[in-house]
Amino acid sequence: MADQRPNYIGYCDTHRKRLYPSRKQAKQHLRQLPRNKRMREYPCDLVVGHWHIGHLPLAAVEGRLSAREVYEDRP
Questions:
Q1: Residues whose CB falls within 8 Å of the CB of residue 26, separated by 6 or more in sequence, listed in order
Q2: Reduced to 3 states, what is the DSSP secondary structure of residue 28?
């Protein structure tokens, strides 16, 4: 049987999240999720040019910081 998720290309072994080949495809999948208000697409830092979908940090949801500010100090 063919894969029913044409935009999904596999899992990132380190992050244990689905990989998407482009930001556009990650956003398209995100829009299809029923509870997507606190989620975002972000680049995989291990597989160059690929994207993940994940939850926004609480500080970003509350408007105290942007997601970029929360994650900028991470290695």
A1: 7, 20, 41, 51, 52, 53
A2: helix
Is residue 33 within 8 A of residue 39, CB to CB? The reply is yes
Domain count within the chain? 1
Tokens of 72: 């900028």
* pLDDT tens, position by position, 38-73: 898 988 888 888 999 988 889 888 999 888 888 887
> At CA 26, angle to CA 20 and CA 28, rounded to 5?
135
List alpha helices for 1-75, DSSP H.
23-32, 58-61, 67-71
DSSP character at residue 20 = B
Full-model pTM:
0.72
Residue 67: give the domain boundaries: 10-71
pLDDT at 67: 84
